[in-house]
Amino acid sequence: MLQHDVIIVGGGLAGCRAAVEIARIDPSLNVAIVAKTHPIRSHSVAAQGGIAASLKNVDSHDSWEAHAFDTVKGSDYLADQDAVEILTREAPDVIIDLEHMGVLFSRLPDGRIAQRPFGGHSHERTCYAADKTGHAILHELVNNLRRNGVQVYEEWYVMRLILEDGQAKGIVMYHILDGKLEVVRAKAVMFATGGYGRVFNTTSNDFASTGDGLAMSAVAGIPLEDMEFVQFHPTGLYPVGVLISEAVRGEGAYLINSQGDRFMTNYAPSRMELAPRDITSRAIARELRAGRGIDLQGNAGGPFVYLDLRHMGREKIMSRVPFCWEEAHRLAGVDAVEQPIPVRPTAHYSMGGIPVNTDGRVRSSNSSLVDAFFAAGESACVSVHGANRLGSNSLLECVVYGKRTGASIANFVQNRKLPEVDEQFYLTQARNQIQGLLDQQGEYRINQVCQAFQDCMSQYCGVFRTEELMNEGLNKLQELQQQFSQIYLDDRGSLWNTEIIEALELRSIMIVGQTILTSAINRQESRGAHFREDYPQRDDSKFGQHTMAYYSPAGIDLDYLPVTMTMFEPQERKY
Ligand SMILES: Cc1cc2nc3c(=O)[nH]c(=O)nc-3n(C[C@H](O)[C@H](O)[C@H](O)COP(=O)(O)OP(=O)(O)OC[C@H]3O[C@@H](n4cnc5c(N)ncnc54)[C@H](O)[C@@H]3O)c2cc1C
Q: Domain holding 530: CATH number?
């Protein structure tokens, strides 16, 4: 059996930052990262616009308190304010630390790190590396893994969390290359498995964002927090859904409807295109519904609106947002210097996730913690984003809480022994699960069921929600879950069998989707990204709390956890 002091699942920003911190604090610890992709192919690499911190390089009036207020207001008062305080206070130091590791941020003429405006932020505080910020940061972190002797298992798919008597003891993993199964035991297990954009049919996320870590935790009996809050990013490129970064609006681009109007005047007159994402996505969806969208012939009534950069001029476009220009050119055939880009909302970010405290320790209920289990990054919910995340706060969360969780793990494993694990038991179960999939004689292809499931989630649990719509969705979803036992695989081999991975991922998507829908049906109010047409107001007295969803094959039970309010009282949220 393989063993490490610490095993981290996920090679994105959160997992890598934690690993580096553990190795820095105690170089004698044996730390390993597992990822189903190469670490540099984690979705973090695709992050474009930037990372927020009140460095005050551009705006001397900025402060961590202002950043904290913007974040809490952006969250529609659902974020835990103690966690937000840590995030925003520690932000400037983690950015400087990244720079010392070698991250190449874009610069001001005087050599300091440049900062740009971003949606929902009241000051210019988003640091960036052109529109390839995630790329710049992740490359340096992965280099630092090597430098610090962290072992990397790349292209291994983790299929199970070993949790016994309230203690995380290890994982079971499958080697995509040759189908080999391994049990790994460890003194501490950390999940940094990223988001679940693939639950929806149109998403900015990569193919690996299937919510595996959430599903594995849920199956092990751990609650999932605030799953109803799914961020739809306003500007997904039509029709593929790939992201056109908010940095483009940060640099001055306009949103235009079929009548040529900058329609954001009607929705957020003071912030216009730089209103928070929930508000901007709803505004676009409303324009489309009202027939003021545009089609590919340029007529009214179509499925997208325009993102117009033309007034910015070639030089600014090419120096500040070159990657977005290239995406629009390559994927939609649009030259953004000359033509507006067709966009519509796309599933982008998971505000909810595995519930953790501010040391990254996973909660097993409102009042208890799982022993030896940690999580950070997009898969976790420490709740700094509440009901709606501000752009450029997620990379920040990965780095601040990745670092913090790493420090907390380095401390935790001192004087701990490796747990006893029955290797044969877990290997047999995993082997049976894989063999069961290979032997299944069903009538559906994986892709058929997956597509139907993603369509169902997008149709019944998208930007606008009602009880009737979501109940219909839940019924459809249960029918589709039945079909999972009737899928068949064409590939029955063990070498690079991506169909097995797709089948395991489909299982994750289904568990996560069911949790989202159930949590959403039961939140009878509108807050942040969760908009109920049948309950259009925020209801603090009943729902000023976090949803905790406990999954079991028989159904999902819900409980509610109070929000931590230390700094700001809830107010009406206007921009
Ligand atoms: C297109 C795009 C642009 C973005 N731009 C910005 C931005 O400018 N600013 C900002 O703040 N945020 C941005 N975000 C959000 C931000 O990038 C992510 O929230 C963040 O990078 C997530 O990092 P992570 O470490 O939590 O997970 P990820 O980077 O998603 O990494 C997840 C890791 O887990 C591994 N994994 C998952 N499941 C398994 C399994 N079963 N077995 C083994 N390994 C597994 C994966 O292989 C991967 O290594 C953007 C997101 C997208 C999609």
A: 1.20.58.100
From ligand 1's centre to the CA of 12, what distance in Å? 6
The last residue of one of the domains, among 412, 443, 462, is 412
Of 479, 477, 481, the residue nearest 459 (C-alpha): 477
Q: Decide whether any atom of ligand 1 lies within 6 Å of the 35 Cβ.
A: yes
CB of 47 within 6 A of ligand 1: the answer is: yes
Predicted pLDDT of residue 43: 97
User: CA-to-CA distance for 427 and 266, rounded, in angstroms?
Assistant: 59
Classify residue 42: in a domain, yes or no: yes
- Decide whether any atom of ligand 1 lies within 6 Å of the 13 Cβ: yes
Peptide bond preceding 570 in cis form (omega within 30 of 0): no
Report how far ligand 1's centroid is from the alpha carbon of 43 (Å): 4
Tally of structural domains, the chain: 3
382 and 499 co-located in one domain: no
Residue 150, judged by CB atoms within 10 A of its CB (0-12, 13-18, 19+), counts as buried
At 107-155, the pLDDT tens digits run 999 999 999 999 999 999 999 999 999 999 999 999 999 999 999 999 9
Structural domain range at position 188: 2-229+349-412
pTM (2 decimals)? Answer: 0.97
Whether 551 is in a domain gets the answer: yes
CA of 305 to the centre of ligand 1 (A): 27
Best residue among 374, 388, 395 to mutate for probing ligand 1, ranked by most atoms within 8 Å of CB:
395
CATH number of the domain at 94, please: 3.50.50.60
Residues 400 and 434 in one domain: no
Nearest CA to ligand 1 atom 8: 49
Cβ of 51 less than 6 Å from ligand 1: yes
CA of 44 to the centre of ligand 1 (A): 4
385 domain residue, yes or no: yes
Q: Is 98 found in the same domain as 20? A: yes
Residue 50 CB less than 6 A away from ligand 1: yes
- Say if ligand 1 is within 6 A of residue 37 CB: yes
Q: Is residue 66 a contact partner of residue 123, using CB atoms and an 8 Å limit?
A: yes
- 454 contacts: CB under 8 Å, gap ≥ 6: 198, 199, 200, 201, 509
The answer to whether the CB of 395 is under 6 A from ligand 1 is yes
**Which residues are designated catalytic?**
277
Ligand 1 mean position to 522 CA, how many Å? 28
Sheet holding 51-52, edge to edge: 51-52, 126-127, 115-116
What residue's CA is closest to ligand 1, atom 31?
12
Residue listed under structure tokens 């090597």: 146
Secondary structure of 341-382 as H, E, C letters: EEEEEEEEEECCEEEECCCCEEECCCCCEEEEEEECHHHEEC
- Work out the pLDDT band at 95, boundaries 50, 70, 90: very high
Is 298 within the bounds of a domain?
yes
